[in-house]
Design a protein that fits this description.
two-stranded parallel ribbon; 7 strands; mainly alpha; about 70% helix; single chain
Length: about 450
């Protein structure tokens, strides 16, 4: 076995020695790979050039066909031009007569102009009167709103006073029941019969406190003279004192809990004001920028309602919100005085401002572009695309506007191929554009 193994070892060594150098083989493989890559690049370039030439040939063939059609069209236009020239000659004669009639028109226009100037002056006067009436109406509306807010505040105070009075009445009722129970236990009679038990007739003048105390002491002495009656009075007194101690402790606990609750409410209100003001500042900044973006200029901001006395430091948690907007070419005014389209754009700016302050993964918009024209719809779509890219939000827009549908990535619709049978249709516009570019 040893001899056979040595022979096999010698054969293996001779076979290894006869093998070619691996490094040389690797160099040859690298050279071949380089040549293969170069030839593939040349083949790709030539294939692209071949495809380009085929497309150019097809385009030129289409262009030749179009030129032939265009030549036929121009010949037809030349014939039409001859016929049009004859028509123009006929109209020239008519225009000469029209010129003579128009020469007499300036005098008529001058007379009409005088009438229109008078009408414009009258309309201007009516407009000024209407503007004054509108200003007076705005003033009365502001006064009515202040009166409404004051009435709401008074109603809240009255409700709180009612709650306090109900609590006081409950405490008084419990105290009355306690007194009635003590009267029943000690005097064994109803509260209405106390005066009769004490020897006081109805309508008789009540005795003085000193006389009542003297009589009480006399009666106590008489009772004491009767000897001990209740042997467990001390135990009952001890039990009552223990109950009183427990009630006092519970009262103290309730007082401390009320104080902690008020402190918690104060802390929550303070934190709520801070968060509200911080969120209001962010929303106001986004709203101002988005308003300028959607309107192509102008300015807008959000304000908190002032108090009835005009104090700007009113509690933000109780203040209202006003939207002040100034589209390009208009003065600064509240949102309710704008037109329908301007109100829609302003509302969109506020909606997106809140959305940018606290973004969400999905946003659904239903017919928000209905009152907008094509230019404003294009601005709206551009803004939606920017927010979708920056906030990583998917927008689901329900619309019938062609501009909005053309700017979306995917369309979903319902079609009725057969009567009574509806079918959902989906179109990927991005994929369609890619196929169009590669075609």
């Amino acid at each position: 076995d040893l001899v056979e193994a040595e022979a096999q070892e010698r054969g293996a060594r001779e076979g290894i020695a006869a093998l070619p150098d691996p490094a040389q083989g690797r160099e040859q493989v690298a050279v071949l790979r380089t040549q293969l890559a170069e030839r593939r690049a040349v083949q790709g370039a030539r294939q692209g050039e071949h495809d380009r030439l085929l497309r150019e040939a097809a385009a030129r063939a289409e262009r030749l066909a179009a030129i032939a059609k265009e030549a036929q069209s121009w010949e037809g236009r030349a014939e039409a031009a001859k016929r049009q020239r004859a028509t123009i000659e006929e109209r020239r004669t008519g225009i000469a007569a029209e010129i003579e009639r128009l020469d007499r028109r300036p005098a008529e226009i001058g007379e009409q102009r005088g009438k229109l100037v008078a009408a414009i002056e009258a309309a201007t006067e009516r407009r000024n009167q209407t503007a004054d009436a509108l200003a007076r109406g705005d003033t009365r509306l502001a006064e009515a709103e202040k009166a409404s807010k004051a009435a709401d505040a008074a109603l809240g105070g009255a409700r709180e006073e009612r709650v306090r009075c109900e609590g006081s009445r409950g405490e008084a009722e419990r105290a009355r029941q306690g007194v009635a129970q003590r009267i029943t236990e000690r005097l064994d009679c109803a509260p209405d019969a106390v005066l009769a038990t004490g020897g006081v007739e109805a309508g008789e003048e009540m005795p003085t406190i000193a006389d009542a105390e003297a009589r009480l002491q006399r009666l106590v002495r008489e009772r004491d003279g009767m000897g001990p009656v209740n042997l467990v009075a001390e135990a009952e007194a001890t039990e009552i004192e223990e109950k009183l101690t427990v009630l006092n402790r519970e009262r103290d606990d309730l007082t401390a809990a009320i104080a902690r609750l008020r402190q918690g409410i104060t802390a929550l209100n303070r934190e709520g004001r801070e968060r509200l003001l911080a969120a209001f500042t962010q929303v106001n900044e986004h709203f101002s920028k988005l308003f300028v973006r959607l309107f192509g200029g102008g300015r807008a901001h959000l304000t908190l309602d002032q108090s009835e006395e005009g104090d700007a430091t009113r509690d933000p948690l109780e203040a209202g919100l006003e939207i002040m907007a100034s589209p390009p070419g208009k003065r600064l005014q509240v949102m309710s005085l704008l037109s329908g389209g301007e109100q829609a754009l302003t509302a969109l700016a506020l909606l997106f401002a809140v959305f940018l302050t606290n973004p969400a993964p999905i946003c659904v918009l239903d017919e928000v572009d209905a009152p907008l024209d094509d230019a404003n719809v294009d601005r709206f779509c551009s803004l939606v695309e920017e927010i979708a890219e920056s906030a990583q939000t998917r927008f689901l827009i329900i619309t019938h506007h062609r501009v909005t549908m053309a700017r979306m990535d995917r369309l979903f619709g319902v079609t009725m191929a057969e009567r009574g049978i509806s079918q959902l249709v989906s179109v990927d516009l991005q994929q369609a554009q890619e196929l169009r570019r590669t075609a």
